[in-house]
From TrEMBL, chains A, B:
This is Transcriptional regulator, TetR family. Residues 45-64 bind DNA. It holds the Pfam family TetR_C_3. It comes from Roseibium denhamense. Keywords: DNA-binding. The lineage of its organism: Bacteria, Pseudomonadati, Pseudomonadota, Alphaproteobacteria, Hyphomicrobiales. Residues 22-82 form the HTH tetR-type domain. PANTHER family: HTH-TYPE TRANSCRIPTIONAL REPRESSOR SCO4008, TRANSCRIPTIONAL REPRESSOR. The keyword Calcium does not apply.
Amino acid sequence: MADIGGQTAAASKPVGLSRIQEKNRNLILEAALGEFSRYGFSGATVERIAAEAGMSKSNLLYYFASKEAIYNAALAHILDVWLAPLKTLDANGDPAEELAAYIRQKIEISASFPEASRLFANEVMQGAPQILPILEADLKRLVTEKSAIIDGWISAGKIKPVDPLHLIFTIWATTQHYADFSVQVRALTGRDLSDPGFKAETEMAVTSLILNGIGLDWPKEAASSA
Amino acid sequence: MADIGGQTAAASKPVGLSRIQEKNRNLILEAALGEFSRYGFSGATVERIAAEAGMSKSNLLYYFASKEAIYNAALAHILDVWLAPLKTLDANGDPAEELAAYIRQKIEISASFPEASRLFANEVMQGAPQILPILEADLKRLVTEKSAIIDGWISAGKIKPVDPLHLIFTIWATTQHYADFSVQVRALTGRDLSDPGFKAETEMAVTSLILNGIGLDWPKEAASSA
DNA sequence: TTGCATCTTGACCAGTTGGTCAAATCAATC
DNA sequence: GATTGATTTGACCAACTGGTCAAGATGCAA
């Protein structure tokens, strides 16, 4: 299992923690996510995180040894959720349905956890100082595995030839854009993914663009069987 | 003309500056771009910018009143370059050629000025504290104008119906992804846009995906005239 | 050369911030 | 309810950082 600065990447709750410890660590991680995603690592302050979590700075540092430890724990905390959708891509499923489902999940996460998206984006944009090893190991393994599935669909003539990596990058880029640049999206459209109507519209636009882009029908027409 | 914290958005060199002033302001802006894009506003330090520009911190503050003033000047300095490609989208051109050219320019900029891309991304992700007014005024005006062109192409039956805003967002997201997340791209592919081969491959992949996505032929086939 | 404005810098200051520590408080077990 | 370990906090410290200031260095025009 990959870890970040000693923080296990799994979202599993460490078992040896008391009731108070688990409650406080969760409060801290929740507050840290908000703070780090809003201000970045340097801009965040331990004092604000503590205040947001409802405790003193000293007490926060009783639970995490340093600011960097909090940051790593917050990163580890979101990483599983972040990578989960890609894992569900199934070689035996229908390509259109599989990719549509993947895009739907990514947009759902962008809508539900925009802070997680921004935290991750921030980390990677600064050169991924903490999670580069995970990108190079775990993520690369996962992406290589799923790229093979897409290549299989191409070989079977189910989708147009396309470099699977660029397809994956395109899906990541578009879906995360709506979370990371929500301020810009809101400035231009007046809405963002927190609006259910806009979320549905975005999902349809992105899905149909990408699926049509690789030669698939979307939304699926009953034409051939009518 | 829009401005940011008193800094004119135009890249025009102020005319009333001495030779020394112009040289030093440029050195500072260059250094500031590197520093702010790498560490974000909070993480950047005036001292490092000054060192990178080859002068003392005091001297830097002789040219710019504050850290925020440097930041705003750097932002203003890149904004024109950043928005230029969209301005070239021509209603009278061929949709496929026009959009392909736009994507090509965006990728070119991502490849040539990745730091500018990251600086802009950072600013927007933090809520666009400095340039929100520009997004809401200048950018919105430009995007509205170009959306009308795309809508015109749809009405003329030249491209499939698609919300122009989502199309534009998709182009922004994909092209900028390769600059902003270059570390992740490199971790997964071993290459980035600084590699001419990878840049060409990326341009082809993104262009064909998006153009096919809206019902255009790309790369253009001579099929109909053969 | 001289005089003046521009340019440059080191010393310094005040506010912020991550982190330490000893003491106080709380919770659970006997 | 006494004891012991876990939890919580305020006081405090050292490093860093943005910004000021007075003085010196430099460029330039007459």
